[in-house]
């Protein structure tokens, strides 16, 4: 049987994805994973061998995130978070759309973003998601559904013309096009 | 698949909820999310974090 510590090590990549989906920031995500691991090690006697370790561990990370959020009384919104937080060093032709997606993701409520990423990226079932996030299966499904449709609305322009994100994306695109025509780099545009 | 403007697929009239949806937007979204998150999952685990776990393992077994 895999030891408790081996299970912790094995689940670290998934915890990182969950942490990034919640924090929207790589550095904060690393800190959150480390804090969650510390909490898990301290609470390992409360884990019942043979039960769902993955759900137990994801819940610890999620609770730590919520606890930290309350302590900081954070009211971060997209204005405070670099659009490039989610990654990526994409240089291919759809990198602009990827940056749009990154920005749109940042606008989603944290619980919807987390649910979407855990189902789509990690391939988690709705039942496992519900257990990992401490909600009903119906709630888990609803979060993923709403996240998908909200992103679709934002990314395909199905929004009022005065939508702030759409206006911002349009302005960014115009600036990027202008800089590209002038042969200038545009990296600095994504660190607001 | 064929993308719409700026590589984002045109809005589909389908409205499926499963993670294996064949909605063009959902297919595009899945690919985009993997591009954004896969690197993070594949990065090496920081030594400090591994040391923390191993030290706890040693303490528990001693």
UniProtKB/TrEMBL annotation, chain A:
Residues 12-73 form the RNA polymerase sigma-70 region domain. The keyword Zinc-finger does not apply. It comes from the Bacteria. CDD domains: Sigma70_r4. Residues 100-151 form the RNA polymerase sigma factor 70 region 4 type domain. Belongs to the sigma-70 factor family. ECF subfamily. NCBIfam families: sigma70-ECF. This is RNA polymerase sigma factor. It comes from Asaia siamensis. The lineage of its organism: Bacteria, Pseudomonadati, Pseudomonadota, Alphaproteobacteria, Acetobacterales.
Automatic annotation (TrEMBL), chain B:
Residues 1-25 are annotated as: Disordered. Residues 7-19 have a biased composition (Basic and acidic residues). This is Anti-sigma factor NepR domain-containing protein. It comes from Asaia siamensis. Residues 31-54 form the Anti-sigma factor NepR domain. It holds the Pfam family NepR. It comes from the Bacteria. InterPro entries: NepR.
């Amino acid at each position: 049987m895999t030891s408790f510590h081996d299970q912790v090590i094995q689940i670290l990549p998934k915890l990182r994805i969950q942490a990034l989906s919640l924090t929207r920031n790589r550095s904060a995500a690393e800190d959150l994973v480390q804090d969650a691991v510390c909490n898990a090690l301290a609470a390992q006697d409360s884990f019942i061998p043979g039960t769902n370790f993955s759900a137990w561990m994801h819940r610890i990370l999620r609770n730590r995130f919520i606890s930290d959020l309350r302590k900081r009384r954070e009211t971060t919104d997209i204005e405070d978070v670099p659009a490039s937080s989610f990654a990526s060093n994409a240089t291919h032709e759809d990198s602009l759309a990827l940056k749009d997606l990154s920005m749109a993701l940042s606008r989603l409520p944290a619980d919807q973003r987390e649910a979407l990423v855990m189902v789509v990226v990690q391939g988690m079932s709705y039942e496992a998601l519900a257990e990992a996030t401490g909600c009903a299966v119906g709630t888990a499904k609803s979060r993923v559904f709403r996240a998908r449709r909200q992103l679709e609305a934002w990314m395909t322009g199905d929004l009022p013309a005065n939508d702030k994100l759409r206006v911002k994306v349009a302005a960014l695109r115009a600036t990027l096009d202008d800089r590209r025509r002038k042969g200038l780099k545009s990296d600095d545009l994504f660190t607001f | 698949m064929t993308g719409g403007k700026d590589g984002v697929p045109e809005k589909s009239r389908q409205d499926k909820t499963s993670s294996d949806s064949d909605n063009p937007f959902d297919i595009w979204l899945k690919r985009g999310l993997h591009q954004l998150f896969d690197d993070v999952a594949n990065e090496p685990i920081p030594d400090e974090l591994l040391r923390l776990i191993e030290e706890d393992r040693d303490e528990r077994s001693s």
